[in-house]
Amino acid sequence: MTKIKIKNEELIEDNVGKVIDFPKYTTQIMNLANQNSQGTRPKVVGQMSDLIELFPGKTYNEWVDWYLQEKPVSIDNATDKVYDMVQKLQEAIKLIDKDLVRKWVKDLVLTKTFIGLRFQKTILAKIASLKNLSYQLSTPEEESRGIDGYIGKTPISIKPTTYKSKEMLNEQINVEIVYYDKKKDGITISFNF
User: Fold this and answer.
1) Closest by alpha carbon to 51, among 65, 63, 39?
2) Are 70 and 51 in contact, with CB atoms under 8 Å apart?
3) CA 21 – CA 29 distance, rounded (Å)
């Protein structure tokens, strides 16, 4: 089997003609600003996958002309949204000193890592509270059997929602399962017992 890689620059040069050379780090900042401002979402620039299907031409220049005719203010609207956020990021950068970076690193490495790896206790406590029962974490021996803890006398296994779609090799868990989904603002749990 032959395997080759075509670099993005080659794709752009072959299809568009020239690669824009952005100053170092600027695209990372603009990408972050775009994510925060949602400047290139479909409601601002259109649903691109649908638009490219409707596009009757073949060349890049035809695409540019057609798109700007279909969505005459989209580029300006997206630019305004992203640029506004870039200005907000510039102000935020002025607030960052070494002490703030240290606090952020400690929060990421210590707090978020610990919580990310140890939130089973909080899940058990929350469900136990809803059911007016006690809870306890499992022993290492119980953990090796897929039990993360108990709610009352019921053994519980805590798994990500993605676990449902995976074919777990030789793993059989014969206990109640609590599924969780990590979100930006916390975790969502679901269970059937």
Assistant:
1) 63
2) yes
3) 15
